[in-house]
Design goal:
Number of strands: 0
Distance between the termini: 28 Å
Structural class: mainly alpha
Radius of gyration: 21 Å
Number of helices: 15
Largest sheet: none
Helix content: over 70%
Order of helices and strands: HHHHHHHHHHHHHHH
Strand content: under 5%
Shape: globular
Length: 354
């Protein structure tokens, strides 16, 4: 059971997230940069940035990148891997707003079917792509639309509920997505699969930042500036071995996420209207913050469906982004860390990274 959980929930979701990062996410960043530069000066180079970004965020490209990422993390053979480009492209487009979840499910099955026949015949170059693509195409025709509808419905319910009950849902979404970020699963893939944008996306960003910045500050005594960079700009997942040894070290970042989530939704009304995958990235490469900023100027298609509009950010928008993503998680976890060390819940070396 552990083998399959790791293969399908950890490895496959990680590959999906990397595929999203290498297409939709980086494409959005490049496009947003070009658009902002074009505001300053009309220049062919800046327009090239916009065009390059548009190439990367095309749904066909995004689907192919996700599927290849999934196949790669499942250690599929070359022919299976290359064939998954067509499978992912078809599943993402057919799945619509819930396309990422359709790609995850269909690419896993298509990859496994391809792996079954890979290098088993003398005409492998025909059989393996044939089985992989036909399996993926059949599943896409039969299920992708419905998987997409189901995923979009769940995401819509979360976004809608967060609008109606921003305080409670702010706490829940922030805590759950933050915990998922630190666990060896992909919070980015979860957010992308369910299209978490708007206030729900903002709460997710808050929860992820609470974990990453929180652990970076909490463990500064052991890991110093290297820990700030590796956890604050990398991933809080590095602390999982230490959490298993002493689960109490996880309490400060979780409390921080429970506090900052409703502050984001109720006080600053911080929305993440960029690419949904950004909601689950936190401060990793500052992707969460870039998602919030890009959503101000040009909301994503998912955000537009929920009524988002472009805005010119004001002082409170920038203040909220800085406080929610950096200042509050750092202060809360620093204070709780002092308390926990004093009462013996956290001991010297409990947070050290090997």
């Amino acid at each position: 059971m552990n083998k399959y959980v790791k293969r399908y929930l950890v490895d496959a979701m990680s590959g999906m997230a990397q595929g999203l990062f290498a297409s939709l996410l980086i494409g959005t960043i490049i496009k947003t940069l070009g658009q902002q530069l074009l505001r300053l000066s009309v220049n062919p180079v800046f327009q090239f940035f916009v065009d390059a970004g548009n190439f990367a965020i095309d749904p066909h490209v995004v689907g192919a990148a996700m599927a290849i990422g999934i196949g790669y993390m499942m250690q599929s053979g070359a022919l299976v891997l290359f064939s998954l480009a067509a499978v992912g492209s078809a599943a993402n487009v057919t799945g619509g707003a819930g396309g990422p979840l359709a790609v995850l499910i269909i690419a896993i099955i298509a990859a496994e079917m391809g792996n079954l026949v890979s290098k088993k015949t003398k005409v492998d170059i025909i059989v393996t792509p044939l089985v992989t693509i036909l399996t993926g195409a059949l599943l896409t025709v039969l299920t992708a639309k419905y998987i997409g509808i189901a995923a979009n419905s769940v995401g819509t319910f979360i976004v809608w509920t967060t609008k109606l009950h921003p305080f409670v849902m702010g706490m829940i979404v922030s805590a759950v997505i933050g915990i998922a970020l630190t666990l060896p699963i992909s919070s980015a893939a979860i957010c992308a699969a369910f299209g978490l944008v708007g206030l729900a996306g903002g709460a997710a960003v808050a929860g992820c930042c609470a974990q990453m910045v929180g652990f970076a500050v909490l463990s500064f005594q052991e890991n110093h500036w290297g820990g700030i960079l590796s956890q604050g700009l990398g991933t809080s997942m590095l602390q999982m071995p230490n959490i298993i040894k002493n689960p109490k070290i996880w309490i400060p970042p979780i409390i921080a996420s429970i506090i900052t989530g409703p502050i984001a939704t109720c006080v600053f009304k911080m929305e993440m209207n960029g690419a949904a995958v950004s909601s689950g990235m936190g401060t990793c490469g500052l992707v969460g913050q870039i998602g919030v900023i890009s959503g101000w100027y040009e909301p994503s298609e998912a955000a537009l469906k929920h009524g988002a509009t472009a805005i010119t950010p004001g002082f409170m928008d920038w203040l909220g982004l800085i406080l929610i993503c950096f200042v509050l998680p750092a202060v809360i976890c620093w204070a709780l860390g002092k308390l926990f060390r004093k009462i013996g819940w956290i001991n010297e070396g409990d947070l050290a990274l090997n």
